[in-house]
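Lab meeting tomorrow. Please check the following:
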Amino acid sequence: MSSDQKLSEPVLNAQPTRFKYFDLILALFAVVLIVSNLASTKTATVNLGFWQPAFDGGTILFPLTYIFGDLLTEVYGYARSRRVIWFGLAMNMLATLTFALVASLPESVDSPTKGAFGVVFAFAPRILLASTLAFFVGEFLNSYVLARLKLLTGGRWLWTRTIGSTLVGQGADTLVFSLVAFWGVLPSDVLWGLVLFNYLYKVGLEVVLTPVTYAVVSFLKRAEGVDVFDRHTNFSPFKWGKSGS
């Protein structure tokens, strides 16, 4: 049996597999997601000379969650990536609901930031809803497309999987998030400009960081001794377990 065949199915061991870097990627994934969603409460404008599109602050870091998703699916498989996506969603909801609760509490008369906290985080529940819907659709599409393309390419041409999955996942994510978060808040021309700029930025960052993704994927596969091909994986977002079968 070839080494590719041995790694062609989700890992099924009697004892839980201990990975060196999986927990680190999971933690970074959750932190970047939470920070990005809090930053999304602010919209800004970038001056490109010929175009001055608006963008939400979360766009700066958020594409990294898709790169982490690529790493997880490519190395550890769709089933483990699915668990991380659910963990990220849970932590994001916890953070946003906590800030919303704190914002609703009566403010001390001596507060040096009187009123500011409530103004900033009053928009957080809508951002949470938009983020949850968009992230759910986008991340699972991203992981699914990457896993399928890995089978179609036989594990070759990693760039086709990372960029191809980003085109689909980020497209869905950007559209859902922008419409749910900013529909009725921003003028329609500004909103569609935001959608276009955010999408181009996210895909562009994935392309620019492709050499880094190659290096990290290669390192992780060697260090962890795993390279999962999801031939018999159940791709339902609601299936739980390491094997996902």
User: Anything to note?
Assistant: The chain is about 65% helix and 0% strand. The longest strand covers residues 43-45.
